[in-house]
Amino acid sequence: MSGYAKSVVAAYVIVFSALAIALTFSRAEIPYLLLPYLKFDFTEIPVMLALMLGGLVPGLITEVIHWIGLSIARGWVLGPLMKFLAVVPMVLGFWLGIRICKKRWTVKSIGAAFLLGIIVRVVVCSITNTIVLLVVAPEFLRFSEYCLKAVRIIVASTSDVLLWTLALNGIFNALHVFLSSTIAVVLFRAAAKRLPSIAEKAWLSPKAG
Predict the structure, then answer these.
(1) Listed residue (179, 55, 57, 170) closest to 114, CA to CA
(2) 173-to-119, 126, 177, 178, 185 alpha-carbon distances in Å
(3) What is the per-residue DSSP string for 66-97?
(4) pTM summary value
């Protein structure tokens, strides 16, 4: 955990949860051209900032609140749930990378955080997407086939469609981890330089290491 008082951590959770929800309603998104139903968004950045400032629990709580807000905004269950099951593994992987290296802020620890964030998210999302495409909502697999053919990817069977979809989804999730984490790190570093008190008590202290 961070060195902040519980009230300060709670305030961070409230602020970053509200920001994530606001970004959700703004629909500021960038389509992933290979599978257009996937979109890069900026809602994960506040979650990562909550993690860097407060630690694992505040980061996860922020994502839970974001998930609830996303479910309300979208008006359905499956999409927001899949988003939740993508962001939580990223948060856990990033946190684990920092903890394994036993340091707060080094090239090695940040690199490990990015790497594990990508690996854990891609693995979990590959499992959840397989379940959704084969069991929960097979119609999405047919839509994926249409998208793949639209970008001139040759698929001759259902297995081809599934494998291509999982591969492209994995690339998407890896890129999303890199995008969200990089922006969050840059913002966090900039804030820490302007407000040194943030660096002193934050869970991921730029002054350490």
Answers:
(1) 179
(2) 9, 10, 6, 9, 18
(3) HHHHHHHHHT-SHHHHHHHHHHHHHHHHHHHH
(4) 0.91
What φ, ψ does residue 29 adopt, rounded to 5°?
Answer: -135, 155
Q: Please choose, from the candidates 20, 49, 4, the residue with its C-alpha nearest in 3D space to the C-alpha of residue 185.
A: 49
What H or E segment, with its residue span, contains residue 119? Answer: helix 107-131
What tens digit of pLDDT does each residue of 159-202 get? 999 999 999 999 999 999 999 999 999 999 888 888 877 777 78
| Cβ atoms of 180 and 45 closer than 8 Å | yes
The tokens describing 41, both together, are 């968004």
Which DSSP symbol is given to 136? Answer: I
Residue 181 to residue 134: CA distance in whole angstroms: 31
Strands (DSSP E) found in the chain: 29-31, 39-41
CATH of domain 6-201: 1.10.1760.20
Is residue 47 very low, low, confident or very high in pLDDT (cuts 50, 70, 90)? Answer: very high
Instruction: Give helix 139-150 / helix 158-194 axis angle, nearest 10°.
Output: 80
Can you tell me the distance from the alpha carbon of 7 to that of 21, in angstroms, rounded to the nearest whole number?
21
